[in-house]
Amino acid sequence: MARSRPAWSQRSSGTRLADARLARDPTVRLNAAMTAPADPLLPLLPQAADSFRPWLVWYAAGERVELTGHVLAMWAAKSAGFLEAEAGTAPRVRLALGPSWRLVTWCLGTWLAGGSVVLGDDGAPAEVSVAFTPGDLDPVAEVQVLVPRAPLAVRWEGEEGSGSAGLPPLVLDGVADVMTYADSFPPATAGPGHAALTLPRHELGAWRGSEADKEHEAVGEPTWATLSRQETAHEAARLPEEGPAVLIQESASATAMLAVLAAWRAGRTAVLVAPDAEESLVATAARQERAARMSPSAGC
To answer: How confident is the model at residue 209 (pLDDT cuts 50, 70, 90)?
Structure first.
């Protein structure tokens, strides 16, 4: 059954397939990379060769997930391949995954595909919507994806407590459908000025410790901010506390992801703890991973 497309989508399936094939052509991608300005975001992201230490450790009630740079790079490559095949080059991807390790892998895949991550409903169309539950999917997104919460799940098996199992019609599986793609993906060409992250402006203000960003809504200015790849890399320039790992527990997806990037930019492991984790679990994570919590900052 063919997936219906919203009115704003102008590309046919044939055009998207041609775009994806062209983008995967190594000669085309190499020529583009040689002439394009350097992408400042890619050096912060894990590579396939980064297998000597964990880059990300996730803690939640009854869960501990450790991912090396190699494993993260594999997830990013598979996600990027999936996004490019389903939505073409440089897709706009709306993520409703909360602060979680799944959020991190989908951000990486989107950026590797040259796309832009949207954290929340900014009112603008997105080609792809990714969520844990059907109710959080963007109904007008051309590509809709459901991801299981369970760390070892091999497919989405229904919303817990809903009494239903299986994917809704026309919705793709964020694990089963993604795992069929290759473990490597040549980065799409994206310059410093390309959009990377759209987030609520008050969350950007919380990250910066700046009241100025929190005041836009009060004076009627736009309440959303879009950061370029250069600006996203710059926001990650904050120096975390000393130690081999950085403890991150944030209620907002945007501040959690920026903190993860800041830890990586400093060469440290990001220890991401679920927002609803009890203090005893937070203390355990800090002790076991030798992680220091990132201090609030008045700016980057």
So the answer is: confident
Kindly list the domain boundaries of the chain, sorted by start residue: 13-293
Angular region, 88: left φ>0, alpha ψ -120 to 50, beta rest:
left
Q: State pTM to two decimals.
A: 0.85
Instruction: Please give the single-letter amino acid code of residue 230.
Output: Q
Q: Which CATH number fits domain 13-293: 3.30.420.40, 3.90.1640.10, 3.40.50.1580, 3.40.50.12780?
A: 3.40.50.12780
Per-residue pLDDT, 294: 80
C-alpha to C-alpha distance for 271 and 273, rounded to whole angstroms: 6
**C-alpha closest to that of 102 among 142, 136, 72:** 72
Q: Give the three-class secondary structure for 195.
A: strand
Picking from 274, 269, 265, 275, the residue whose alpha carbon sits closest to that of residue 292 is: 269
Structure tokens at 20: 């994806």
46, 76 contact by CB (below 8 A): yes
pLDDT, tens digit, 9 for 90 and up, residues 265-281: 999 999 999 999 999 99
Strand ordering across the sheet containing 143-146? 172-173, 143-146, 128-131, 92-96, 116-118, 195-200, 224-228
* Angle, CA 238 vertex, CA 288 and CA 245 arms, to 5°: 10
What 3-state class would DSSP assign to 7?
Answer: coil
Q: Which amino acid is at 279?
A: E
Pull the structure tokens for residue 170: 């026309």
Check: CB of residue 59 under 8 Å from CB of residue 277.
yes
